[in-house]
Structure formats: structure tokens, C-alpha cells
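Homework help board

Subject: predicted structure for assignment chain

Our instructor gave us this sequence and asked us to write out the predicted structure in C-alpha cell form, then describe one feature. I got the C-alpha cells but I'm not sure how to describe them. Can anyone check?
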Amino acid sequence: MTVVKNALDRALTWVCVALFAALVLDVTWQVFARQVLDSPSAWSEELAKYLFIWLGLFGAALVFGERGHIAVDIAVARAPGRVQLVASVLAQLAILAFTLLTLVWGGYRISALAWDQTLTGLPVNVGWLYLALPLAGVLTAFYTVYHLIRIITGAELAVDPDAELEIS
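My C-alpha cell output:
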């Protein structure tokens, strides 16, 4: 499973790099067209909006895979090891439930509902653009299951030992 995760990390990193590069090029064109050519581009603004959404969702999945997300675990970090394990497993299960219900199922439903809607500025249907939700949800669910298995088997610590525990 680690091999799959590492391959997924690399692929997702390159997808995020490509999305970011496309976003930079698109916004650069948008500014150039508006300021230099004095002819604003309607499609570039709409494209930038959707590139930003896709980048945010896939970037969040990638950060989640690295366990780089925000975690307020000061109380758990001071608890005994068994409590840390139980709290971490419960947190992973809650994240998995939210991801499956909201991103995967809800994202699929909204994408299906918007499948026939067209955009004025881009030659694609809205449903294709909403596919970022269930795709990011599947990625996040995979990472959640991966970390859950590693936490339960003891291959990964329940709480990050490098986290700051100082209270002023």
C-alpha cells in the first residue's frame, strides 16, 4: 500500500504543479489582455476560477496524504498512549465518513446534476468541472484509510511527536 501511496503522491504532486502553472499562465494572459491589449478576456477569468478550485481540492488531498493538515491535538498529545491511539482512530474514521458523504457522494450528485449545464465562457459542461469534488474525495479517502491502517498497526504514531506542546 505504501508503494501505491508514494506513486499517488508523485502523480498528484505533478498534477498540482501543472494546475498551478496553468493558473499562472491563465492569469498572466488575463492581465496582459486587460492592461496591454485593452480587451478583457471573459474565458480566462472563468478558467482561473475552476483551475483554482481544482488546485485547492487536489492540493488539500496531497497535504492530507502527508499528514500536513491542521490538527489541534494538544490535549491528545498529553494523554496516555492508548488514549492517543483511540482518539486518532476516531478522528480518522470521522474524516473518512465526512469525505465519503460530502466529497465523494455529494460531489458525485452535484456533478451529475450539473452535467448538462453549459458555461458561457468555456466550451465544457459544468459537470466536468465539478468532478474535482468526488475525485479529491476518493484521494482523501484513500489517504485516510492508509493512515488509519498505519496508526492501528503501529507503523505511524497517533500524534506527531514534533508538534509544539508549549503553552505560554
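Reply (TA_rk): Your C-alpha cells look well-formed. For the description, you could write something like this. The chain has a mean pLDDT of 88. That's the kind of observation they're looking for.
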